[in-house]
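Have a think about this chain, tokens included, and walk me through the fold.
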Amino acid sequence: MTLRTSLVRTPVHMLRTHPKTTVLAGVVLVFGAAFLGMRGGESTVETPVAEQTVPSVSVATVASLSDDNSPLMLIGEVRSVSQAELRTKKSGEVTRVYVRAGERVGAGAVLAEVENAAERAAVISAEGAVAAAEAQLAKVLAGARSEDRATVSAQANSALVSLQAAEDSARNAYSQAYTLAQDAIYAKADDFFEDVYTVAPRLRVRGVTFDERSRLERERREIGVLLSEWEARTEGVIPDTELNARLQEAGSILAVIKEFLNDLSAYVSEQEIDGQLTAAEKASQEATMLGARTSVDSARSAVIGARNGLAQAVSAAQVASLNESKTATGARSEDVAAAEAAVTQARGSLASAYAALANTRVRTPIAGTVTSLSVSTGDFVGAQQTVAIVANEGALEVEAFVSDSARRAQIREGDSVRVAGMYDGVVTSVTPGLDPSTKKARVTIGLTEEADLTNGMYVEVAFVRASESEAAEVPNQLAVPISAIKVLPRGLAVFTVTDGGVLEAREITEGAIVGTKMLVEDLPADLLIVLDVRGLTEGDTVTIDNS
């Protein structure tokens, strides 16, 4: 069988049989391929661009977050207790016994008290110290009132006026001292010299040795030079900055003149009365020397008084100026830090006072029946002495552990507690020290009502402040929610929002965890921080929405 070659049309065959048609088809194919090649780089389907949204955040001041009165939440373990032996924590006289043997008592009830007048007084004093420290901190943070500014400004102006008056008095004292000094030398001491205006003044007092005569004549010549220089300095106005130095210099010159006059007066008094010197003449000479020394003493007193007055005026003006500047610019950071430290110290003293007062009370940790009571009013008991036994088969208590900061700031014996959100309880004991391994304090909570709880289970415990008159609330420390704290490579930080809506990190020092918050000490109370930083990064752009 013969194949028909016309059925197989190769490109070469087509080009030979239909040259024009084949060339035209090739050109079309080439241009088509080129067109498709140019379109190949372009996407024929538009990809939708995802719209970027700016996250919104809520902000609040550190102070408002610290003032949140939500209860402290902890996790505690339920324990079964059949009976409790109650011991005293302090020795002393039993002043009150509230129950009798056989009586039923609730958890947290106080059975007896040891003499605690000193502890109560310490609590009152500590509460006053806390109030004073907080008032001082508030005063520092609030700054000065308008009337305070007016007062310190008036004081500053008054101090300047007083300083100018003291400077004028100092100038007058300087000139007056020179006048008195020259009177003592020129008008009085020179009565005993000849040729005083030459380079070789000669002493006219009898009975003086050659060496002493030479010394006095030399000193008189030197004093003449000092007085001439002093006179030249009194002709011009003394600048304020040189007043103290000029007065000091004048005091030194007057001391030299005083010593000279004392020596000269001694030789005048030692002269013998004879035919050349009568008693009246000697008395007149002694009176002259007395007048000279009195003039110098007056000059020295004027100079010393002027220096003291000038120093006091300068100090008062500086203090008034600093007070005015401090009032105008507000408290410095170190002033705020000192006031905050005083508040913290006062709160610690108050917590210690409450703990000391709690140690004077015998409190039962469980509800039950008082099966034994071995003390009466007036008895003297020692520390750790068993005074009562409370029994209750199946009684329950809750044990929790807290940080030292929470223990000192928020938890005391007698505080009300909500257990598992359903049952009422009371804090029956708080250990004064910390566990060496966990660095936490043990808190025991007694249940004041029947509770459907099981020994060994873990429950949520919410602490509520007690209403006792002596248990005034301890003000909260600065604290921020844990959700507001971001862990960065360089440490912990909170986020603030700049005017441009950008998150900015503010580093903090890690503090104690109290419930769902962390205590902080290095943040300003009025700082606005982001409440929830989860999913946010430093430098992100956000909007503030506190609705």
